[in-house]
Design a protein that fits this description.
This protein is an alpha+beta fold. It is built from three helices and 21 strands. The chain has helices spanning 23-58, 81-87, 277-283, and strands at residues 2-7, 10-15, 61-67, 70-76, 97-98, 110-113, 118-127, 131-140, 144-148, 153-164, 167-179, 184-191, 193-196, 199-202, 205-216, 219-220, 234-236, 247-250, 254-260, 269-273, 286-292.
C-alpha cells in the first residue's frame, strides 16, 4: 500500500510493506527532510538577525555637545561627528572639535566644540600606585619592608587649553588608560602590638591581672584618689604595681588610665569604672591580660 504526506510544500510517498513499515522513509527521506528544514529555517534566522541589526543601526544616537561652557543633548541619525554638527547648524569656523570630525558617532558620545582662543593638547601623565599593607608579627612594631615594588601607571589625557588675557586654563576632556599601575606590597611590623578599635597599638609590656568593676553607689562615691571625676576609662590600681597615670589597653573594656585606688585593691588586681550597676554585674570578676602602653 502506498501512502502520501505533504511536508513543507513537498509531497512525500510512503511505502508500507509487510517487512517493516516506513523503512524506505527512514533510509531515504529523513536525511533530505532534515537538510530541507535546516536550509529553510537557517535562512529565516539569518534574515531576522540581519533585520534586527539594520533596525538597531537605524535608531538615532543621543549625543552631548559641549560649547561655550554649556552642554546640550541632541538626538541624531547622522553617522559621523561632522555630519551631526552640520545637521545641528553649529558654526565651526575657526574652532577645533574633539573627537575629530570624521569620528563615528556613538550613543552617549560627548562632542566638545572649542572656543576660538582654545586649542587641543594631548599628554601622557603618570598614575601613582597604591600601597597595600600586610601585618607581619615577625617585624618590629613600626618597621616596614617592601615585598613587591610598586609600578606607576600611565594615562593619555586630552586637554582643552583655554587662553584668555593673562590667564590660561587646562580642561581635561578625555582620559585613556595606557598602563594600569601595580600596587606596592609592604609588610608592616606588628610585633609587640595589640589590635584595638583604633588599629594596632604598640605596648611596652603586658600583665595578667584580676579585674572587677565598680560604679556610682557601688564603690564610687566621690572623686578618685587623684581628685578625678570617675568615668569610663578610669581604673583603680595598686600604685606599687601599676603607677598612677599609667595608660593601658584592656580587651573587652578599652583604653584606660590608672587614676584611682582602693582598700581592697592590692597586688595584681584592678577595678574598672562602669556607667551602671548592670554593666558591673555583666563584667563580674575575671582574669584578663592587659597591655601597658
Amino acid at each position: 500500500m502506498v501512502k502520501s504526506m505533504v511536508v513543507g510544500g513537498f509531497t512525500m510517498i510512503l511505502h508500507d510493506g509487510r517487512h517493516g513499515a516506513g523503512l524506505f522513509l527512514l533510509q531515504h527521506w529523513l536525511p533530505l527532510l532534515a537538510l530541507f528544514l535546516c536550509t529553510v529555517y537557517g535562512s529565516a534566522a539569518e534574515a531576522v538577525a540581519d533585520a534586527s541589526a539594520q533596525a538597531a543601526a537605524a535608531q538615532p544616537s543621543n549625543i552631548r555637545v559641549v560649547r561655550m561652557g554649556m552642554e546640550r543633548v541632541y538626538s541624531t541619525s547622522e553617522k559621523t561627528v561632522d555630519k551631526a554638527l552640520a545637521r545641528l547648524n553649529i558654526n565651526l569656523a575657526g574652532r577645533q572639535v574633539y573627537p575629530q570630525l570624521g569620528t563615528k558617532v556613538e550613543n552617549g558620545m560627548i562632542i566638545h566644540v572649542l572656543g576660538r582662543h582654545s586649542h587641543l593638547s594631548t599628554e601622557q601623565v603618570e598614575v601613582p600606585y597604591k600601597q597595600k599593607f600586610i601585618d607581619d608579627p615577625k617585624l618590629k612594631y613600626g618597621e616596614t619592608k617592601v615585598e613587591t615594588p610598586g609600578v606607576a601607571g600611565k594615562d593619555e589625557v586630552t586637554y582643552e587649553n583655554v587662553t584668555r588675557t593673562g590667564f590660561e586654563q587646562k580642561i581635561e576632556l578625555e582620559r585613556k588608560h595606557l598602563k594600569e599601575p601595580v600596587d606596592e606590597v609592604v609588610r608592616r611590623g606588628i610585633a609587640q602590638a595589640v589590635w584595638t578599635p583604633q588599629g594596632y597599638v604598640h605596648y611596652r609590656y603586658k600583665m595578667i591581672v584580676e579585674a572587677s568593676a565598680y560604679t556610682w553607689g557601688a564603690g564610687a562615691s566621690g572623686n578618685t584618689s587623684l581628685g578625678l571625676t570617675p568615668r569610663v576609662g578610669i581604673v583603680a590600681v595598686d600604685p606599687r604595681y601599676i603607677p598612677y597615670y599609667t595608660k593601658m589597653y584592656i580587651p573587652g573594656y578599652g583604653f584606660a588610665m590608672a587614676g584611682d585606688t582602693g582598700g581592697a585593691i592590692g597586688g595584681y588586681r584592678i577595678d574598672l569604672f562602669m556607667n551602671s550597676l548592670w554593666q558591673c554585674y555583666e563584667w563580674g570578676r575575671r582574669e584578663v591580660e592587659i597591655y601597658i602602653l
